[in-house]
Amino acid sequence: MLIDYSKAMVPVALALAILNTSAFAAAKTNQIQVAYEAPKERDLEIIYKDMKERRVLERLQEFLSPFKLPRPLKFTFQSCDGEDDAFYFDYDVTLCYELVDELQWAKPRKTTQDGLTPHDAVAGPFFSIALHEFAHAVFELYNVPIFGREEDAADQLAAYIILLLDKTVASRLIRGTAYAFLTESKEQKSESTIEYASEHGIAEQRYYNVLCLAFGADPKRFSSLKSKKILPEERADACQDEFEQIEDAYKALILPHVDQALAKKVWGKLEVRTN
What is the residue range of 99's domain? Predict the structure, then answer.
């Protein structure tokens, strides 16, 4: 029996229209809530106090304020029973103090030969991870259709948002993120092949993916990725197309839910300290 898809799609399209109308009628900016939970472990108290004093979540709250969400979304800093993790569930993004501890442990002790500072090696991946988990939330809140793995899409959206920022800030955050993936990839090589079964891509692949998006977004600023053969030439040549594909998806599916005037004001003043 042949299905007449032109007719079959009518009720589907109508249902989606009804859902979108009801879901986003009340959508508004400044829907991010934040909380710091005191850690159970004494050795995490320093990180807890440091994050709170630096107002890390409040700064993230301001950064994400331009997104018009149909309901509040909460970011919670807490201890996670020794797991250096971050995750999204039921309108709550959890960031673990252990994650910050791990990033601090893995950072270079001094600025590297290619100019990566210890601070950027922490700030870059932390910000990327927070945006990655936020991406999972907006996929659910905006009913975003996804081909492929959601974890890959979350990586792509996180990197794309970073690349919307001031070029110097974006470069530092992307390089810090790439450093973390490369460091993780070295650890994974000594582990079992069970990593291949993860819903996340392996760290080395995520490393090349984020560099490819950066190169695709700004081939001049990130020209060394190709000239120094950090990105294989055949991959580098396709990066602009990869970036444009993600940009098209962002403009169609995410941008309509962003207060662009507020985004320009808030994202334009983002700074990454130098020490």
Answer: 26-267
Residues 6+ apart with CB under 8 A from 271: 169
Rounded to whole angstroms, the Cα distance separating 32 from 217 reads 28
Work out the burial of residue 231: count CB atoms within 10 Å of its CB; fewer than 13 is exposed, 13-18 middle, 19 or more buried.
Answer: buried
Euclidean distance between CA atoms 220 and 47, whole angstroms: 38
Residue 224 region by backbone torsions, left for phi larger than 0, else alpha for psi between -120 and 50, else beta: alpha
Amino acid at 108: P
Quick one: which of 218, 107, 108 has its CA closest to 160? 218
Q: Are 165 and 270 in contact (CB under 8 A)?
A: yes
CA distance linking residue 195 with residue 32, whole number of Å: 33
Model pTM score: 0.87
Handedness of CA 102, 104, 107, 109 (dihedral sign): negative
Would 214 be classed as within a structural domain? yes
Find the angle CA(146)-CA(32)-CA(45) to the nearest 5 degrees.
Answer: 110
Question: How many domains does one find in the chain?
Answer: 1
12 in any annotated domain: no
Q: How many CB atoms lie within 10 A of CB 127?
A: 24
Q: What is the pLDDT of residues 78-126, one digit of tens each?
A: 999 999 999 999 999 999 999 999 999 999 999 998 889 999 999 999 9
**How many contiguous H segments (helices) and E segments (strands) does the chain have?**
12, 4
In a domain, 14, yes or no: no
Give, as one character, the DSSP assignment of residue 258.
Answer: B
The CA distance from 93 to 87, in Å, is 6
Is residue 165 a part of any domain in this protein?
A: yes
Residues in a beta bridge with 93: 75, 88
Q: Tell me the C-alpha to C-alpha distance, in Å, between residue 6 and each of 10, 11, 15.
A: 7, 10, 15
β-bridge mates for residue 77, sequence order: 36, 95
